[in-house]
Design brief:
- This protein is an alpha+beta fold and 276 residues long.
- It has six helices and eight strands.
- The strands form two sheets. Strands 1, 2, 3, 4, 7 and 8 form a six-stranded antiparallel β-sheet that branches.
- The chain starts with 18 loop residues before the first strand and ends in a 9-residue tail after the last helix.
Length: 276
């Protein structure tokens, strides 16, 4: 979750929004796509050979948790024609959610925060029950947003309410969400996360996004989100890709909270696997 709307918002920049495509691409014929992919692979191979030495040195200096975070972000950015085909296939054979009540917030470095999250394909009473349970624990822990992996349920689903209180604001449930456009304009804002108790730091994100998702009955819809709501959505969306908010901090900002991150790792129950 990000801080409640009453918290200080440190917006650094403001300018006219200029949308650019994030993952929706045109569908060229297979021959053209294959030729383009071959050129990219060849170019990438040459670049990889030239930069492998410098990359090795960079990773040798980087904190191991940071390297893992960079890998998660890189994986989340993958897209294109083949990715869309795989996504469509996964939606056709999507999973039925399984979970156990009561839910509990899983704290970093719990493995559920880094696990892959399944696309949901069964829209039934259990899915609606999960959404209601997620809102309940989100309000109890004073959050404004919550992603399913944060409660140990590894499916692509999130809930949020900007107001952070039951009976106020608007409750939003997004199943299998996708970002289709994002603004070039970005700002810095202090974020927190229910899975990282008492850790707050600045994170830069686009100020606006356009998204597609399904509701708990499977109906598809689109939304354009701006400002605080866009930030809450992006924070929770990252969780669905196994990306955590400290993965997006600058080196300087991350360094200011590294001791607290290490303390969470040290406090993790002995013998349980870690998803750093």
């Amino acid at each position: 979750h990000t801080p409640t709307p009453g918290a200080p918002r440190r917006l650094r920049r403001a300018s006219t929004l200029d949308f650019m495509s994030a993952s929706i691409v045109s569908r060229p014929c297979l021959a053209a796509a294959a030729a383009s992919r071959a050129r990219l692979v060849s170019r990438a191979a040459r670049a990889s050979t030239a930069s492998s030495s410098s990359n090795d040195k960079l990773h040798a200096r980087a904190h191991p948790i940071q390297v893992r975070g960079l890998a998660q972000i890189a994986r989340a950015k993958k897209g294109g024609f083949m990715a869309e085909m795989e996504e469509a296939k996964a939606e056709e054979s999507g999973a039925k959610v399984e979970f156990t009540l009561p839910l509990a917030i899983q704290k970093y470095p719990h493995v559920s925060l880094r696990n892959d999250n399944k696309i949901i394909g069964v829209f039934d009473a259990e899915l609606e029950k999960l959404a209601q349970a997620m809102f309940k624990i989100m309000y109890e822990t004073e959050g404004v947003g919550l992603a399913a992996p944060q409660v140990g349920v590894n499916y692509r689903m999130m809930v949020y309410n900007e107001a952070g209180e039951p009976g106020r604001g608007k409750e939003v449930v997004l199943v299998n969400p996708k970002i289709v456009k994002f603004s070039k304009t970005k700002d810095l804002f202090e974020e927190g996360c229910l899975s990282f108790p008492k850790i707050y730091a600045d994170v830069e994100r686009p100020t606006s996004v356009q998204v597609e998702a399904q509701n708990v009955r499977g109906k598809k819809f689109k939304m354009t989100l701006d400002g605080f709501e866009a930030r809450v959505f992006q924070h929770e969306y990252d969780h669905l890709d196994g990306v955590l908010f400290h993965d997006r901090m600058t080196d300087e900002v991350r360094g200011s909270v590294q001791g607290e991150l290490d303390a969470l790792i040290d406090a993790h129950p002995a013998g349980e696997p870690k998803g750093v």
